[in-house]
Amino acid sequence: MTVPYGDTPPKRARAPFSDEIARAVVDEDNLRRLADLDANRRGLRDIWETIVATGRRGGEVVSLRLDLSGPLRRSAHALARPDQGRQLRPGHTHPETVYQRLQARQDTTVKAFSDRHGRLPTAKERTRMALFPGTRANPDGRRPLSYGWF
Q: The pTM is what?
C-alpha cells in the first residue's frame, strides 16, 4: 500500500487468537507446566491467567497492588468487563476464577510478609504493597516483580 508522504497508513486491528490457540493458553496441563517454571511461586500462572481473562497488558497486571487497586480495582465484575470490546472466547478462564486466584495471591503475599517480619502488615503497609512483590532489595514488598521477570 502506497502512502503519501506525511500520511500514516490506517491501523489494522490485530486478529484474535483462533479458538484452538485460546484453548491452549488456558489448558490446565499447560497452566500447570507454567506454574512449575515458577520455582519461587511468585505468581507466574496468576499473572498469565489474569492477562488472558481480562485482556489487560502484562505490565498492568504485574504492577497490581495488594488491595487490587489499579486497572482491576473494582470487583470481580471489573475483571469480567472486557477491555475495549474484547470478548471472552471459548477456552478462556472464567473471570470469577481469576478473581478468586487473585484473592488467594493476596493471602500468599501477606503470608510471605508475615513470615519475613514475624507480624501481619499494618493497614497502611497493605495499601503500599505489591500483589506480586519483587524479590530483590524489597523488604517491605512495595516494588512489584519486573515485567522483564514475567
A: 0.71
